[in-house]
């Protein structure tokens, strides 16, 4: 059985709707809770698939969260080995950092439901299923495009919303894995951030009702197509 290992930073930002897809495709899924569990290099580097999930910290906050240094180093080593690696939100930022790209605060927080604009490369990638689909944004940091990577999607406040390096490495700023059934956990977990950003939680609830089903369907298609592309 193949092994999928997920690096999780907060309990409610998990594999979401992707977990069942992975299990149906023969993966045994497991989590490392970053900052709590040991980052075992052998386990991270040997997993058939590594998924680096989101979280409410910045990759540059290494004084406050020193585990970020080792985490980015291990991700970079894995990418250098051309091992299949997926990153979501903070996970994509860690991947960009590990590839020597600059990561820092963006001009505005993007939180809520909105579409992304696909690049030509994005329309030729598994992200093509996001045409006319609203995704769940939840980030305040941006990254530069790492050297040797293709930009796949963009928004007004975030020039690089997704990138890939070859077929094996895919980083996505926004959330396409979030399970709409558990959006309330996100609203509770990010209550302070929502308050500081003056965002009404009910607007996200209403957006989830309106757009959640379409995103779930698109997210499933994207993951299945990417897994096919990388030989799983």
Write the layout of secondary structure elements.
Elements: E1 2-8, H1 18-24, E2 27-33, H2 41-46, E3 49-52, H3 67-80, E4 85-88, H4 90-98, E5 103-114, E6 117-118, H5 120-123, E7 135-143, E8 150-154, E9 162-165, E10 169-172, H6 183-189, H7 191-196, H8 201-229
Parallel strand pairs: 1-2, 1-3, 3-4, 4-10
Antiparallel strand pairs: 5-7, 6-8, 8-9, 9-10
Helix pairs in contact: 3-4
Shape: globular
How many domain units? 1
How far apart, in Å, are the first and last alpha carbons? 12 Å
Number of strands: 10
Enter the CATH topology name. Rossmann fold
Beta fraction: 25-35%
- Helix/strand class: alpha/beta
Task: Spell the H/E element sequence.
Answer: EHEHEHEHEEHEEEEHHH
CATH-defined superfamily: Class I glutamine amidotransferase (GATase) domain
Largest sheet: 8 strands, mixed
- Please identify, by name, the CATH architecture: 3-Layer(aba) Sandwich
What does the radius of gyration come to?
A: 16 Å
List keywords for this structure.
single chain; about 25% strand; 8 helices; alpha/beta; globular; about 230 residues; Rossmann fold; 8-stranded mixed β-sheet
């Amino acid at each position: 059985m193949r092994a999928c290992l997920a690096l999780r930073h907060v309990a409610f930002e998990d594999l979401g709707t992707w977990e069942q897809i992975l299990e149906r495709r023969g993966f045994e899924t497991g989590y490392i809770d970053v900052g709590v569990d040991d980052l075992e290099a052998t386990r991270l580097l040997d997993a058939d698939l590594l998924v680096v999930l989101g979280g409410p910290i910045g990759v540059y906050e290494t004084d406050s969260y020193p585990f970020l240094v080792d985490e980015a180093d291990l991700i970079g080593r894995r990418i250098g080995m051309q091992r299949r690696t997926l990153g979501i939100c903070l996970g994509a930022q860690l991947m960009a950092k590990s590839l020597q790209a600059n990561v820092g605060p963006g001009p505005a927080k993007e939180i809520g439901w909105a579409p992304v604009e696909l690049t030509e490369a994005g329309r030729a990638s598994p992200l093509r299923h996001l045409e006319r689909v609203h995704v769940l944004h939840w980030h305040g940091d941006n990254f530069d495009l790492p050297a040797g990577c293709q930009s796949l999607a963009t928004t007004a406040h975030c020039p690089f919303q997704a990138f890939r390096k070859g077929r094996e490495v895919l980083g996505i700023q926004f959330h396409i894995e979030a399970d709409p059934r558990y959006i309330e956990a996100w609203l509770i977990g990010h209550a302070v951030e929502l308050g500081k950003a003056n965002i009404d939680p009910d607007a996200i609830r209403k957006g989830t009702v309106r757009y959640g089903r379409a995103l779930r369907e698109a997210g499933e298609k994207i993951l299945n197509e990417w897994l096919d592309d990388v030989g799983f």
